[in-house]
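In response to reviewer comment 3 from the previous cycle, which asked for concrete evidence that the modeling workflow produces usable outputs, we include below a single protein chain processed end to end. The sequence was submitted unchanged, and the resulting structure tokens are shown without manual editing.
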Amino acid sequence: MPGVLTVTLAPSIDRSYRLDVLTPGALHRAEDWSEEFAGKGVNVSHALQLGTTPTLAIAPLPRSEWAQWAAPGWLSFVEASAKPRVSVSLVEESGRTTKMILNGNVTAKDMVKYRLGLASGIA
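The workflow returned the following structure tokens.
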């Protein structure tokens, strides 16, 4: 049993693209990029496990995406029909960051399933 259990109601896929300089209206080619599953509770559990504190993060996610994000043993999912929101960061060499957030589509039905799953210990 984990020492700390976190629950993330609105997880996100965080994508970061690194580029030299962002010029509005111009075509850009990213120098590098990364993608991670995130959200407040997920981020807390990630930090705790890096510091060796036992933890488990639980978040709603469509079953079709579980395999892509479940590699860490500290991350578990409750089935949802909607995809999570997506956050895109454009990070310039200077460190200046431009962020765009696409809203997810978590429904009331998903939230009921999520709560029932947590209450019954399914994660």
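The chain has one domain: 4-119. We consider this sufficient to address the reviewer's concern, and the full set will be provided in the supplementary archive.
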